[in-house]
Amino acid sequence: MSVGPQIIIALDFANIERVRALVAQLDRRRCRRKSGKELFSHAGPSIVAELQARGFDVFLDLKFHDIPNTVARACAAAARLGVWMLNVHTLGGYEMLQAARTAIDKSTRRPLLIGVTLL
Hints:
By secondary structure, the chain is α/β, with parallel strands linked by helices. Helix content is 45%, strand content 23%. The model has no long low-confidence stretch (mean pLDDT 94).
């Protein structure tokens, strides 16, 4: 099993042109990309598709934390985007975490699911 690049570059900009300029300088074979709340809120799911079209793995860093059904649907939607990894906030509790895991497991494209314990 190939591990892939272990460096994740945070694209924490609201300016899409700054993101594109940075991405153009980086080698997809050497690092992955992280889209957080600022970039995703500004550019939406299209930024994930754009990065993937350039050959990058995308970590969607939105730290989902809500009622279990809402988090499950958000995780399923993220999986449909084809992200490599996504996260949830563990303070959501066991039921929320289980709902996220179940939603990911039902997806045809199963991203890595990680939990954030403390900000």
